[in-house]
Structure formats: C-alpha cells, structure tokens
Amino acid sequence: MSSDLPLAGQVIAPLGAVEPPHDGTDASARPVYPAERRVLGLAASTWPGILAPLAIGILMLAGWEAVVRIREIPPYILPGPLLVAQTLVADWPTLAGSLLVTLRITLAALVAAVTVGVALAILFTQSKWLEKSLFPYAVILQVTPVVAIAPLIIIWVNDVTLSLLVCAWIVAFFPVLSNTILGLNSADHNLVTLFQLYRAGRWQTLRHLRLPAALPYFLGGLKISGGLALIGAVVAEFVAGTGGSASGLAYRILESGYQLRIPRMFAALFLISASGIAIFVLTSWIAHLLLRRWHESAVRREL
Amino acid sequence: MSETLAAGPASAPADGRGRRLLSLRGVSKVFGNGTLAINGVDLDLRQGEFVSLLGPSGCGKSTLLRIIAGLGRATTGTVEWPTAPHDARGTPEPALGFVFQEPTLMPWASAIRNVMLPLVLCGTRRREAEERAAAMLALVGLKGFEAAYPRELSGGMKMRVSIARGLVTKPKVLLMDEPFAALDEITRHRLNDDLLALWWQERFTAVFVTHSVFESVYLSNRIVVMAARPGRVMADLDNPAPYPRDDLFRTSSDYAHLCRVASGTLKQAIAA
C-alpha cells in the first residue's frame, strides 16, 4: 500500500490479517476433510446404512419362521429359514461344488464381456464407419432374450461349459460396450482441443484423455454387467438342464424341484442371491477405489 | 490504424523484442451455418508484446484466437509465422501455450500431472517433465500443491495450474481466452498481477482475450478493439504505461484516463 492511501491501508490490513486473503494460493483455501468418528473400524455415519436393512431382514426372517411354525406348513411347501440354513450346512459339499461352477462361468463371462466390450468400444470410437456397421448387431444381440437363443447355442456349441459361457457373455457385454462408448465420447471438448494443440496422436489422446474420461462410465457398466453375467449363467444352466458332475446352482434348483427337496432349492436360491450381492459389492468397491480421489460420484460431499 | 492511448514513452525493452512473430492478412471465418464470424482481420504480433483482444461478446475474438492457435482454419486470408519452424507439409509449428476460459484440467490427474501433460505429449522423459512441472507450479505460487487433485483446489488455484500448464513448454506465445472471467474480482486482480510478473520474467508474448476494458488496460501494452457482426478490428491502441504495473497503477489517474479512452473507443466500435 502506498503512503497516499493511509486510510485504506489501515482499514484493510487488519482484516487481511484476521482472514487469510482469498488469493488462490493459501493452504486454507483447500477444503479440509475432518476425520470422522469411527466405530468398529467403520465411519460412524455408515452404520445406520448397515443396521437398518439388517434389522428389517432379521424381522422378516423371524416372521417367516413364525408363520411356518404356527401354521405348521410342511417343508416341501415352504421351509422355514432355520431349516434352509441347516440344509445349507448339511448339503454344503454338493452346493459348494455347484456354486463354484456357476461362479466360474459368471466370472469368465464377465471377463470376456469386459474385454470384448472395451475393445469394441475403442474400435467404434476410432472409426465411425465401423461403429455404424456393427453397433446395430450388438443391439440385436442385446434385445434378443437369452432364453430364446440359449437352446440354439447349446446345440451348436459342443462343450456345455463353453455354451453357458457364451450365453452369459451375450447378456453381460452390452452394458460395458454402450457405457464405454458413451464415456470415450464424453471427454471434455476443451481438453480434446488442448490435445490437438499439442499435436497428440490418436494413441496418446486415447491413453491420456479418452480412457480416463471413460472410466466412470465403464465402471457403471461393469456394475450392471456383473449382475447380468450371473443371471445369464443361471438362465443358460436352466435351459441346458442336465450337466452331469459339473453342474451349477440352477441345475441344483431343477433337481431339488424334481425330488421335492424344497429346503435345498431355497439354499441354492440363497447362494445365487448372495453371489449376486457379492459381485455387486465387489464391483462397487473397485469403482470406489478407482474414483474416490477425483470423480463426483465417489467423493464425499461437504455440507 | 495504430494510435496511442496517451502521450508518454512507449515501453520498448531492448532485448531483441519487437521481432514480428505472426501476421494475419485479410483473415475471415465463415461458420458452417453461414455466419460470418470475423471479416478481413489484419493483425501483426511482435515478440514480447502483451496484446489484449478487447470486444463485446460475439465479436469473434475467441474465434480469432483459435485461428491463431491453429485450431480452426481461416476461410480466407493468411496466417503466417515468419520465425517459427515448419513441418514437412509446410504447416507452421509455433511454440504455443493456450489457456481456456475454464481451467480445463483433467480431473483424474493431480496438479503436477496436469502441468506435465504437454511435456508428456511431446515425449519428454518423465523425470525431466516432473522437474519442469514442479518448477512451473512453484512459479505460479502453487508449491506444495503438486499432489492435489483439481477438485481439491479453489477456482483461482485451478486457473494457476492451467497457466502453469500453458507455460511449461516455454512457449513463445501464450494465448489466453478470457481466463479470469469466471473468477471473483479479488482473485482476478491477484492473478492479473501474477500473470504480469510471469510475463515480465518469462518473456513470452501474450495474447489475451477479454471483454473487460479495465483488465485490458491494466495488463497489456497494446489493445486491439474489435466490433461484432461481423467480427472485425476497429482500433489498435498502444498502451504506453510503463511496467511493472501494480496496485499503485490500478488506482492512478493515468490508469483511469487510459480506461476512459479505451472505453470510448470500445463504445464507438460497438456503435459502428
């Protein structure tokens, strides 16, 4: 401040001393995230989200068990949750084997869906011509019910496991493809301009700009595809029916139905749902890990 | 065409500045929808200048800047870089930096990775790119924020990162498209001061698009006033006020006078 403005200097200086100047360089301008209280290793605010659905679940199961006991419903009509749990433990060797078969097909289908989906998305965004000629077929593949084409695939493909894999893949790959295409095309236009300005090549633009920009979209697609791969695998198993020793959970459900071993059917059903939830949690966790530092969807909002 | 805002010795540094870097001749741009964005612009850019392109919105100043940057082709007219190297096809490859109206940072990359980007794209070794980017961040006042992600930075800090990225390749010319328009006034004044200090120290040539008379008079030694529909150059004013400029200049009667003259010219340009 100059000496010919003493008043301004005197008035403004103390204010500036109390409050750091909003100059864009001060460390206090950075958002501060206060450490939250933690209970049993989890942030205190996450517990209600876990406890509330858990309480509802326990209430429902208790109600179910009560109805079964009071009305004396036979287990071949509706087994109580305790009996289902007992069956799950007793039949674990058989069920675990089936679970493994189904999970293996699901994961293989998911890996194939991600690989093919991302590869096709990259190809499509590199050439509009390719996208125009191939994308409609991807849509056709997606909208045709897998139950309807599964018999054909099972006839055409000799190997049972491979045919199941193909069915699950058909169901799972489209969300990855369409989301990744959207993501690759969603890069900030000014950033695209900047890359042009520095004469970045196609590969450089893809690697440093389009792929990172597509990541949140891809992960959204992955979450959907994870569940769909499981559904595809189970549906295909249902259609395939018999499968000998290497049979998945759907086969166990069919088999239990024929043999009226309904508790076992429920146990298998429970395992399918649990697998679906596990896949969802896993893909959500991966998405959170990859996005937590920068993407709005994963960053905690400060109020 | 060229006139002077006020009497006084023009600040002409003696270190080889003043060489002609760029000349535009009869540059016009017609958009695909038939709009005549700019019409018949003649403009020379000399080394070491700080030129403001001043005009109302829609006068094609951003379009002109993009043509200078080589991002859009002129429909007619020539853009020549007499001193810049040219590639095999004869396309000039001037060393340019560009700062957008928004910070335009990659949200998935830390501040230093954002600043490193131009170096990485032209194949600089990682270690060297890191060192140069860190030095550039320190120069714009962001030492200690290398690892911060854009969303953790304030608007002014993001703009600083953007400027650091524009300057990290040591460009001959830094093109800026209303870089501070979205910032609050206090931050804008700070960044104006720091930009001038950088310009003085790093000796690049600056082309600064703005619609603020005050900003253009404070920053530049030459103001190109443009008018809209169609976009064209109406006046080319010299701003003789000496550097370094600071708060004292911002509050001086000289500054007020220069602003009045520039403002009058702009008003004429809009009315014309």
Structure description:
The complex is a heterodimer of chains A (303) and B (272). Chain A is mainly α and 303 residues long. Chain A has helices at residues 6-18, 47-70, 81-90, 92-126, 128-143, 146-156, 160-184, 189-197, 202-240, 249-258, 262-291, and strands spanning 38-39, 42-43. Chain A folds into 3 domains: 1-30, no CATH class; 33-72; 79-291, MetI-like (MetI-like fold). Chain A has a two-stranded antiparallel sheet. The radius of gyration of chain A is 28 Å and the shape is flat. In chain A, 32% of the residues are buried. With 272 residues, chain B is an alpha/beta fold. Chain B folds into 2 domains: 2-95 and 172-271, Rossmann fold (3-Layer(aba) Sandwich), CATH 3.40.50.300; 106-170, no CATH class. In chain B, helix 3 crosses helix 4 and helix 6 (213-219) packs across helix 8 (253-271). The longest helix of chain B has 19 residues, at 253-271. The model of chain B is unreliable at 6-15 (pLDDT under 50). The A-B interface holds A 1-2, 5, 21-25, 27, 29-31, 188, 190-191, 193-200, 204, 208-209, 212-213, 215, 293-296, 299 and B 69-71, 93, 96, 98, 100, 102, 104, 106-109, 117-118, 120-122, 141-142, 144-145, 148-157, 159-160, 169, 184, 186-187, 190-191, 247-248, 251.
- Kindly state the mean pLDDT of chain A as a whole number? 84
| Rounded mean pLDDT score of chain B | 85
End-to-end separation of chain B in angstroms reads 16 Å
Largest sheet of chain A: 2 strands, antiparallel
How many helical stretches of chain B?
8
Please indicate the count of domains of chain B: 2
CATH topology name of the largest domain in chain A, in short, is MetI-like fold
Query: What order do the SSEs of chain B take from the amino end to the carboxyl end, as H and E?
Result: EEEEHEEHHHEHEHEEHH
Largest sheet: number of strands, sense, barrel closure of chain B? 7 strands, mixed
What is the CATH T-level topology of the largest domain in chain B? Rossmann fold
Stretches of chain A where pLDDT falls below 50 for ≥5 residues? 1-28
* SS element count, helices of chain A: 11
Helix/strand/pairing category of chain A: mainly alpha
Whole-angstrom Rg of chain B: 18 Å
- What's the CATH superfamily of the largest domain in chain B, by name? P-loop containing nucleotide triphosphate hydrolases
What's the level 1 CATH class of the largest domain in chain B? Answer: Alpha Beta
